[in-house]
């Protein structure tokens, strides 16, 4: 689940980068405009992935920390 969320967050970040730099919304261009049903579903899924990403900041991976000696 973490990998899928990370991939979706990267897609969202790249899309926002395109919007910021070139005023081009790739998701809207591919899936029928910002108000299109499919585009809104994509935006919602990416948003949920972002929320999941917030939870990843606060979760503790004991295997990762024990390997570092924490």
Spell out the blueprint of helices and strands.
Layout: H1 2-22, H2 26-31, H3 37-58, H4 62-68
Explain this structure:
With 70 residues, the protein is mostly helical. 80% of the residues lie in helices and 0% in strands. The protein contains 4 helices and no strands. Helix 1 (2-22) crosses helix 3.
Short description:
With 70 residues, this protein is mostly helical. 80% of the residues lie in helices and 0% in strands.
Kindly state the number of beta strands.
0
Specify the number of helices: 4
Distance between the termini: 25 Å
Beta-strand content estimate: under 5%
Radius of gyration over C-alpha positions, nearest whole angstrom: 16 Å
Low-pLDDT parts are none
What is the helix content?
over 70%
* Overall average residue pLDDT: 86
Shape: elongated
SSE class: mainly alpha
Q: Can you summarize the main beta sheet?
A: none
Spell out the helices and strands N to C: HHHH
What keywords describe this structure?
mainly alpha, 0% strand, 70 residues
């Amino acid at each position: 689940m973490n990998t899928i969320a990370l991939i979706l967050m990267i897609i969202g970040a790249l899309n926002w980068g395109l919007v910021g730099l070139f005023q081009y919304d790739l998701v809207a261009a591919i899936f029928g405009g910002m108000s299109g049903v499919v585009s809104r579903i994509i935006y919602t899924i990416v948003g949920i992935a972002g929320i999941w990403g917030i939870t990843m900041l606060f979760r503790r991976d004991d295997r990762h920390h024990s390997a570092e000696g924490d």
